[in-house]
Amino acid sequence: MLTVENLNVWFGHPPDRVDAVQDASFTVPQGESFGLVGESGSGKSTILRAIAGLIDTWSGTIAVAGKPQSARKRDRAFFKTVQMVFQDPYASLHPRHSVDAVLSETLRLQGMDDIDRRIARLLDDVGLGRGFCFRYPHQLSGGQRQRVAIARALAAEPRLLLLDEPTSALDVSVQAEILNLLADLRAEHGLTYVMVSHDLAVVGHMCDRLAVMQAGRIVEVMGVTALRQGTAQQEYTRQLIAASRGYARA
């Protein structure tokens, strides 16, 4: 479903150019949930945005469902295949657009018909009822906003969802609900996920494999079983796992 080879992403121009991602390579088969983890600034969200077409200063290969993508332009077929869910659901929703307007706009952009029926089905899919149609973002909780954002991503009937820290802006009590929803949607719709997270527990729950990033480079690709058992090959990964478990008493 996704192939990334020798990906380099940069910002700015010499002498001020910043190389945010260097020589990153990984593949994600159809139906897999793949994680990108690392410290803040390691480049994981930058990779996601390059895949989504939100950054055009990159080189290397990004191929979706076998089709290489251009750095400059993505066609409608790409956006019917790939959608993204952002970290902050309030910032990603237009404050003056109702839920109905947000979903209607997306469906029309994708050339869909029978809009009202599709909206009702999307809201049911994400655990919201039709009563939410005419609410605005400020009338929703953080978890409800993220459910609307997920419904918007699903409106295009994509095969690949890019998830950029989808629960980090939410209360802890709501995070598990959203993660379980995403797991159910993946099983129900046969979706492929690429999930960015700084939380190894979330990745351990949601993903089959993961890539560990440090300073813009992928230092290790490992299975989630190795993550849970702490049997990483690289010292940096072992330190990351140890840090995620909290401080040990002396």
From TrEMBL:
Stretches of the chain forming a coiled coil according to its record: none
ABC transporter domain span: 4-240
Keywords recorded for this protein, A-Z: ATP-binding, Cell inner membrane, Cell membrane, Membrane, Nucleotide-binding, Translocase, Transport
InterPro entries membership: AAA+_ATPase, ABC_transp_ATP-bind, ABC_transporter-like_ATP-bd, ABC_transporter-like_CS, P-loop_NTPase
CDD domains according to UniProt: ABC_NikE_OppD_transporters (cd03257)
Matches recorded under Pfam families: ABC_tran (PF00005)
Gene3D superfamilies for this protein: P-loop containing nucleotide triphosphate hydrolases
Enzyme class: translocase
Predominant subcellular localization, coarse grouping: membrane
Catalytic reaction annotation: glutathione(out) + ATP + H2O = glutathione(in) + ADP + phosphate + H(+)
Gene Ontology terms: cellular component: plasma membrane
Membrane-topology annotation of the record: Peripheral membrane protein
The organism's place on the tree of life at top rank: Bacteria
Localization (cell): Cell inner membrane; Membrane
MF annotations from Gene Ontology: ATP binding; ATP hydrolysis activity
Function statement: Part of the ABC transporter complex GsiABCD involved in glutathione import. Responsible for energy coupling to the transport system.
Family: Belongs to the ABC transporter superfamily. Glutathione importer (TC 3.A.1.5.11) family.
Subunit structure comment from the entry: The complex is composed of two ATP-binding proteins (GsiA), two transmembrane proteins (GsiC and GsiD) and a solute-binding protein (GsiB).
Record's protein name: Glutathione import ATP-binding protein GsiA
Native organism: Paracoccus lichenicola
